[in-house]
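Severity: low
Component: inverse-folding endpoint
Summary: output formatting inconsistent between runs
Steps to reproduce: submit the following structure tokens with default settings.
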């Protein structure tokens, strides 16, 4: 058997093992209970990157959806760390899907309460 055939078969075996491990991890995750208020996780555009950011006010509401009428799942403060994953414009207002890295709460915040340090992609 030529050397490249052996190498190719070895790579296929590694890829198959990785797929099994990934599938097993996904199955374990799928069985875990959802949070009390599920946050609508957005789909990112290709090439979107996250950014550190900060809260502009204390008591910034973190919402389940990009809407002030949606459920509040937490509050951000100027002393908290922030990671902004992406942005969405709804009714002319910019919203950021982000994680309060101090509390671990993830959700949506409007442009007047949370901002990224660099431009993030749309979601």
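Observed output (run 2 of 3):
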């Amino acid at each position: 058997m030529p050397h490249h055939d052996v190498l190719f078969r070895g790579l296929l075996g590694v890829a198959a093992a990785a797929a099994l491990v990934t599938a097993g991890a996904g199955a374990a995750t799928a069985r875990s209970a959802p949070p009390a208020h599920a946050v609508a996780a957005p789909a990112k555009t290709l090439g979107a990157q996250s950014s550190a950011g900060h809260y502009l006010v204390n008591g910034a509401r973190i919402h389940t959806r990009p809407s002030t009428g949606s459920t509040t799942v937490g509050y951000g403060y100027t002393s908290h760390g922030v990671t902004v994953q992406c942005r969405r414009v709804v009714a002319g207002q910019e919203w950021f899907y982000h994680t309060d890295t101090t509390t671990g709460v993830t959700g949506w915040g409007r442009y007047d309460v949370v901002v990224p340090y660099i431009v993030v992609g749309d979601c």
